[in-house]
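Researcher: Quick test of sequence recovery. Tokens follow.
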């Protein structure tokens, strides 16, 4: 079975992460860049709907968007304060 490459949609707060993800082999898009191309992605609902329609994983810091994804079975990586804290703890444990 051939595994499809992951398609990722990076919310506007982390614009630029799409470029880094693309460099390491992911198919990644930025809400900010898609909006600049003329797509109507100005609300959380439209961003989430776009991710769902295009079978993408949404990467966001917006807690409401993350909760909406979870409620609607849309793949999402929520970079909230708890996740950032886990990263800090993991790195501190290396010392």
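Model:
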């Amino acid at each position: 079975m051939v595994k499809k490459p992951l398609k990722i949609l990076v919310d506007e707060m982390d614009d630029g992460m799409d470029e880094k993800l693309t460099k390491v082999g992911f198919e990644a898009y930025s809400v900010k860049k898609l909006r600049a191309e003329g797509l109507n992605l100005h609300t959380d609902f439209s961003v989430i709907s776009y991710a769902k329609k295009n079978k993408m994983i949404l990467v966001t810091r917006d807690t409401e968007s993350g909760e909406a994804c979870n409620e609607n079975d849309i793949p999402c990586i929520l970079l909230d304060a708890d996740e950032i804290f886990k990263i800090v703890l993991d790195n501190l444990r290396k010392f």
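The longest helix spans residues 81-92.
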